[in-house]
Amino acid sequence: MNETGEGGTMKSYRKELWFETRERMAFLNITNQVQEAVTESKVQEGVALVNAMHITASVFINDDESGLHRDYKQFLEKLAPHEPISQYRHNDTGEDNGDAHIKRQIMGREVVVAITNASLDFGPWEQIFYGEFDGRRRKRVLIKIIGE
Amino acid sequence: MNETGEGGTMKSYRKELWFETRERMAFLNITNQVQEAVTESKVQEGVALVNAMHITASVFINDDESGLHRDYKQFLEKLAPHEPISQYRHNDTGEDNGDAHIKRQIMGREVVVAITNASLDFGPWEQIFYGEFDGRRRKRVLIKIIGE
Amino acid sequence: MNETGEGGTMKSYRKELWFETRERMAFLNITNQVQEAVTESKVQEGVALVNAMHITASVFINDDESGLHRDYKQFLEKLAPHEPISQYRHNDTGEDNGDAHIKRQIMGREVVVAITNASLDFGPWEQIFYGEFDGRRRKRVLIKIIGE
Model confidence over C100-129: pLDDT tens digits? Predict the structure, then answer.
């Protein structure tokens, strides 16, 4: 099924989501909040950019399955362990989040999602997650929607 | 060479590509199919979003060189081995593709490619690949094009 | 603060940046050059795609902190060491940059950044970097801006 938009004026919409997780590392399903922003934007055909505004956090798309999320956390912790914090030169600045900057690069900063018929255009299991790697502080996600 | 589009009405176009690989892990060059969609869209200036619609598959851009593809497979298999499948909590659900969810995050879900003069705006060696990490079933890629 | 663009004609803008690093692996802050392109584009609301045009280089967003950059280099070198070059089948072609193709996939090819009020719409520490993994030759980054 191919679909062609008829062509119209371009609209844009911007919204921030705020989070504060209790854990250092956490994944939050934000799919409904992003769809809500798409509806508010009145965009029928276009794209939604969803990105972490902080550099120790990610936005990514995968399955909402708790076993998988445990696998991701274990995988990331093995690749870039939080401790000892002295292993990261970034932590010489007084920070303790050197690992979080690496974990975020692996999981990615952003997703771009198609909007079709005013909805997120998703496969069967796609869900959008906010990935926190240095939690316990208030942080933001930016949603920017453009389309017609 | 800087180029400015004159400004016009926004168009959009949507197309799905379907794949079924014989191997569990495989890389398919889909560059021509994406360019075909760009041509069908009649968009002259804009962007093409190309994303896996399944969460154990990737779309990525790199070189079409078989030695490199073997290196990628070996690298990914070392980082997140398929076996033993009992090492992944996701597989407690009855799946055996816990590794594929991790491999897909490393290689990425999507690419966004510039469209200039109705063509994919690429450097000398850039080619678009569908990356399959849990094959032998039918899966889709979404192409969403917006522009003028 | 949610903001809705009023709707207008779509504009596009394209610009290339050229680099030649002295080191094999290097990170260059290109934030100001991307903002300059946004200003030149006269786009008020939209998105900027910034991507490496070469397949052994990345564009990514993180902190401009030298300790962190050393951590990234050490992490990437451990995951995909440059030497021995014989460990990569890609290098059987006569290349010595098999590792660089892997490093680039981990750090990513591109970023998509929101443009709001004619500026890059960034969180407090976000900076755009060109990531080079096979330097000492001239290479390009593409900036493609669309919006209204």
Answer: 999 999 999 999 999 999 999 999 999 999
Q: What is the DSSP letter of C134?
A: S
Q: Nearest 10 degrees: CA dihedral of B74, B80, B82, B86?
A: 160
Question: What is the torsional sign of CA C95, C98, C101, C103?
Answer: negative
CB of B140 less than 8 A from some CB of A: yes
Q: What is the pLDDT along chain C (148 residues), one digit of tens a residue?
A: 567 766 678 999 999 999 999 999 999 999 999 999 999 999 999 999 999 999 999 999 999 999 999 999 999 999 999 999 999 999 999 999 999 999 999 999 999 999 999 999 999 999 999 999 999 999 999 999 999 9
B14/A106 CB distance under 8 A: no
User: How far is Cα B45 from Cα B3, in angstroms, rounded to an integer?
Assistant: 10
ipTM of the complex: 0.96
SS3 B94: coil
* Strand ranges inside chain B, DSSP E: 3-4, 11-19, 26-29, 46-52, 57-62, 110-116, 119-120, 127-132, 139-147
Query: Chain-centre distance of CA B97, in angstroms?
Result: 19
Cβ distance of A123 and B9 shorter than 8 Å: no
- Decide: helix, strand or coil at residue C33: helix
**Confidence at A2, pLDDT banded by 50, 70, 90:** low
User: Is C68 part of the contact surface with chain A (CB cutoff 8 Å)?
Assistant: yes
Closest listed residue to residue B10, CA positions, set A38, A148, C44: A148
Q: Give the closest of B54, B106, B146 to A106, CB-based.
A: B106
Would an 8 Å CB–CB cutoff place B53 in contact with chain A?
yes
In DSSP notation, chain A reads --EE---B-BEEEEEEEEE--SSSSEEEE-HHHHHHHHHHHT-SSEEEEEEESSTTEEEEEE---HHHHHHHHHHHHHHS-S-SGGG-GGGGGT-S-HHHHHHHHHH-SEEEEEEETTEE---TT-EEEEEESS-SS-EEEEEEEEE-
CA A43, CA C59: separation in Å to the nearest integer?
Answer: 29
The arrangement of strands across the sheet holding A11-19 comes to A119-120, A110-116, A46-52, A139-147, A11-19, C3-4
